[in-house]
Each structure stands twice: as C-alpha cells, then as structure tokens.
Specification:
Blueprint lengths: L13 H7 L5 H8 L6 E3 L5 E3 L6 H6 L12 E7 L9 H14 L4 E5 L4 H5 L7 E2 L2 E4 L1 H5 L5 H21 L6 E6 L3 E3 L9 E3 L10 E3 L1 E3 L4 H8 L3 H10 L1 E5 L4 E3 H4 L2 H8 L6 E5 L4 E4 L14 H10 L2 E5 L4 H15 L6 E6 L1 H7 L12 H19 L6 E5 L6 H13 L4 E4 L1 H4 L7 H11 L15 H11 L5 E4 L1 H12 L7 E4 L19 E10 L4 E6 L18 E2 L5 E2 L3
Helix pairs in contact: 4-18, 7-8, 7-11, 9-11, 14-15, 15-16
C-alpha cells in the first residue's frame, strides 16, 4: 500500500482524495515557481518536463527572486526513516507534507521525489505518491506510465543487450565471453520466472545460446547512470563506461568498446529532463528517476535535485527505505558525486512501527502498549546515531496515526528529548494540503537547517572495497563483521586488478532489518553480514555488494495488489493505492 495512514470506513481513500482535489494547470504551477514557458514541455494539462538548459534568469526576475546566474542554490532537506515494517511509516507522505508546511510558512519550496515502479505497484507495496492530503498529483498517472521515463530506460537497457548478443552472433570481434556477462535484460515488473532464463535456442539462425536473466528496471545500471548524470554529455560518458561483461582472457568490455553509447543516449534524451507536477496544496514537485534503495542507491535523479535547487530556496527530497540504506547511499554516493549534502535530515517514525520492532504482531498494533514502544525504540535510536556519524543531528518526525494514544506520543517525544534530538508529531495525512498538520515539524526543520553542521562521508574513497563494506556493516548496521563468499573474494581481487577499488559501495540488503535477515527486527546485535557477490557498476561509479537473499528481480505476493485494480465506466482508475 502507499506509505499512508490506513483510512477507516468513513475516511476517503488516497485515490478518492486525489480525485477530489482541485488540480491546477501545470503552466500555473511553473509560473508561480519562476519557470519560464520556454523551458516547459507539456505532457497533457497537469504534468510537464523541464529542460534545465532553457531555464532563464529573466524568469527569476519576473518571479521576484534573485537571478539564477550566481544565485545561491537552494538547501536540501533529506527525509529518511526508521527500518520499514508492514505497519507503514509514511515517508513519502511526510516528505510531501513537510514541503507543503514549509511553503505554508513562507519558504520557496520544491519537492524532489523518485518515480514509482510498476512492479511493486501491482505487487505488494502500492504506489509512491504520498497519501491522504499530502500527495503529488495526478496520482494515478504518476503511479502508472507517467511520462514514459521507465520505458525509455528499459528500452535503452535492452537495446544494449540486443546489440551485445548481435555482436557475438556476427563474429564477436571483441572476443566477448558469453559465459561472463554481468549485465542483464530488465523489465519494470515483479516476475520471478524471468530471474534465470536461457536465450538463443532454436538453431544457428536464432543467435548464440547462453544463460541469461532479467532484473527489474529500477535495478538496472542504466537507471543508476540516469540518476547520477549531470547532463547529456555526462550521461553519454557514463553510459560508455558501463562494463557489461568480460572477454575470454578476462578483460572487461564496456559500452564504449561496442560503440553504442550514442544510441543509448539518444533513447534517453527526452527522459533525462525532470518531470514537473504538483502537490494537493500546489507546491511544485519534480518526480524523476527511481532506483530502489535495497538493490540500488535509492535517490531521485541528480538533475532533478539540482534543477530544484536552481529554482527553490529549499528542496525536500527523500531517500528510499530506512536511513541504513537510502540515507547512507545519499551521503556516501550521491552527495559525494555532487554538491547536494543535506542541510537537515528528517527521520520518519511511527508508534505502530516502533511497537512492531518491539515485538507486537501486526494485528495488535492498535492496542496501546508503551512497554513495546520502549522496546522497539532501539531501532530509531540506531538510525539517529547513524545520521549523526555524517555530522548532522536529525529531526524526528512522528507520523501520527488515528490509533496512537496521547500517552504513547508523549512518551516518544520525551524519549527524543532525552536523546537530545528535536522531534515533532505531524498529522500531514489528515491535515495536509496546506493545513497545519506539519507546522511544528516545519519550524523545527527550518531551525535545524540554520544549525551549524560539519558534513562528512562515512569512509574515504582510497579505503579498500573490503574495508568500505566492513565500515558500513559495523558502523551503520551494528554487525560484528562481514563474511565474503568465495565468488565475492574472487571479485574483490578482480576489482583491485582492474583499478575499480576507488569507487564507493552500494549495499544490496533487505530493507526490513539492519541485518541481512529480514526477520531480525529492532536493533539486532551479534550478527554477521554475508556478502555473496560484488558487481562493479563502472558507469554509475559504485560497486554493488549483494548480501543475504536480496533479489534484483522481485516476485509477486500470493495476492497481488493488481487483483483489486480496475477501471470504471468513465475510465477512472479503481483500487490504485
């Protein structure tokens, strides 16, 4: 489901609220934000792409803000969360609600979010546009095909693999070893049957048979490249650096060796432009890019973040899942590659989820239980301490649910005060849309932005890959150590040999636990992280460490969310959450 408070029988659903909202023409949203019409490319009445190269200083002057050349870029507020549970934490909802509340307080604000993936929408998680009265609109279009960015990324990825297999079929001038391919085809869908496949069957005319497989589109390195590129030239260069396999004599082969980086850039030239939409309250929002944080780096596109910073004074963005995943990757990967270090960090927590981390089963979370809350708060504490290791003291946003008791909320606020952490209860699901549900949180975040900080990364790039992984595992996850499989140890040697050890690490790990075992909730101790393989992403510029049983192609649950979806007689969506 969406990261929202679950509505009761008399409360409208997220879809109903979105349908009832008064949505403005996107030209009005753009004009109010100071975006000149020349930079706007309309995709219907309520969404548009922005061409960053066409943003002009004249538009700034017309909007009454300093000219863009030489203008101090807007500051970034990063929204993260405690470890997610099926109870829901509402990170996307809080991100949108906080932005609306900061705008209500008089700040020039823009939201920067990731695009939803169809796989989890039709599977178990649901949409990713916020919830209640803190949503980005048009909710149904954003959650489904939107402006076609994911289709473009899927096409570019699969075009590469078609060109690779054709090269092998046509004589294999590059001496590519079909047994040592490290790049897969992708599909924006949860489909476990495609994890392992054999292609090229049917005789000589059908290609060279080899074992292959599919990842979900959001796990594609092209998605990562797309989200870390600064412009078209950088996109082309990064695409060219992608290593897709090895030769028979174990030398890496890149897209540039194949000579097709230009064609892939051509397929992505429109998609790379950020998408402009709006919140229910009319706050401008850029929704662009969408790597998962459990199997990729979990942040919206760098181009969108930088475009938003050129327009607004405050950019509220989110990093996927808990702070051990998305936030760590934002700090050590995205903020290392560009000047987007956050001025404030928000950690979203809920009484419900903390009680679940304290041992309460999901169907009893509505019952008051301060004792379970006290047991589960260790999870939040570890996330707070982890963010502090980057030189920033976070603000805790307590996302209020209707079942929370005053006693539980007061206890949590007092606990935060004892931890010397600012905290506020926010009801942006029910009182968002420009209401006062996030006013106290917005005030605390605004104050935090003006608090002195000393941002730092968790590890230096000249540290060995093994030690980088060990640092993350011990400092962030709280593990005793790390165990590398035999294939992972071989890959470590290969990475060192090829000169790739200077890249940051992107951990692929379950989002539900600090460990690589999804069942270990709370703040577990005495465990080991098991790294089963390492995949150098030479175009994106990081090394993925695969741990535990995390899958780069998820499967669907027993009862997929798609089972309740439909379209009514008027063509309106039904059952989309």
């Amino acid at each position: 489901m969406s990261e929202t408070t679950t509505p009761g029988n008399n409360v409208p659903s997220d879809l109903e609220i979105a349908r009832q909202a008064v949505i403005k023409p996107i030209e009005e949203i753009a004009a109010a934000a100071g975006i000149n019409s020349d930079a706007l490319e309309l995709y219907g009445p309520y969404k548009a792409k922005i061409d960053p190269a066409k943003l002009t200083a004249a538009a700034d002057a017309a909007a009454g803000v300093p000219g863009r050349p030489g203008r101090t870029p807007g500051r970034v507020v990063l929204v993260s969360a405690m470890s997610p549970t099926p109870a829901g934490e509402g990170k996307s909802t809080l991100t949108v609600g906080l932005a609306d509340s900061l705008a209500r307080a008089g700040h020039r604000v823009m939201v920067a979010l990731r695009e939803p993936s169809l796989g989890p929408i039709l599977g178990m998680k649901g949409g990713a546009t916020g919830g209640g009265y803190s949503q980005v609109l048009p909710m149904d279009q954003i959650n489904l095909h939107f402006t076609g960015d994911f289709h473009a990324i899927t096409s570019a990825n699969n075009a590469l693999m078609a060109l690779v297999d054709n090269h092998i079929f046509q004589g294999n001038e590059l001496n590519i070893d079909p047994r040592r391919m490290t790049f897969k085809r992708v599909l924006d869908m949860n489909d476990r049957s495609l994890r392992e496949v054999v292609i090229g069957l049917g005789g000589p005319a059908q290609g060279i048979p080899r074992q292959d497989g599919f990842d979900i589109t959001v796990a594609s390195e092209i998605m990562a490249v797309f989200c870390l590129a600064t412009d078209l030239d950088d996109l082309r260069e990064r695409l060219g650096r992608i290593t897709f396999g090895y030769t028979y004599d174990r030398r890496p082969v890149t897209v540039a060796d194949l000579g097709v980086q230009g064609a892939l850039t051509l397929l992505l030239k429109e998609a790379i432009k950020p998408n402009l939409v709006q919140t229910i309250a009319g706050t401008p929002a850029l929704v662009h890019g969408g790597p998962f944080a459990n199997i990729a780096h979990g942040c919206n596109s760098l181009i969108a973040t930088q475009t938003a910073r050129s327009i607004a004074d405050i950019v509220v963005t989110e990093a996927g899942f808990g702070a051990d995943l998305g936030a760590e990757k934002y700090m050590d990967i995205k903020a290392r590659m560009a000047d987007v270090a956050p001025s404030a960090v928000v950690i979203v927590a809920t009484v419900r989820a903390l009680k679940m981390h304290g041992g309460v089963v999901k169907d009893r979370l509505k019952e008051p239980d301060v004792e379970a809350l006290a047991a589960g708060v260790a999870n939040l504490q570890r996330h707070i301490r982890n963010v502090e290791k980057f030189g920033i003291t976070p603000v805790v946003a307590i996302n209020k649910f209707a079942t929370d008791t005053a006693e539980e909320l007061d206890w949590l606020l007092q606990w935060c005060a004892a931890e010397n952490v600012q905290a506020a209860v926010a009801d942006v699901w029910g009182r968002g849309g420009g209401g006062d549900g996030g006013d106290e949180l917005a005030a605390k975040v605004a104050a935090a932005m003006d608090t002195p900080r000393s941002f730092r990364h968790l590890y230096p790039l000249d540290m060995s890959v093994e030690d980088k992984i060990r640092t993350i595992v011990q400092e962030v996850y709280g593990a005793d150590g790390v165990d590398f499989s035999v294939p992972a140890l071989k890959r470590l040697a290969e990475i060192e040999k090829n000169g790739w050890s200077g890249m940051p690490v992107c951990m692929a790990k379950t989002q539900y636990s600090f460990s690589d075992d999804a069942s270990l909730l709370g703040a577990p101790k005495g465990f080991i992280i098991h790294v089963r393989d390492l995949i150098p992403k030479t175009g994106a510029g990081f090394i993925v460490a695969l741990t535990g049983a995390v899958m780069t192609m998820p499967g669907l649950p027993k009862v997929p969310a798609a089972m309740r979806m439909d379209v009514d007689a008027a063509g309106n969506p039904v059952g989309l959450t």
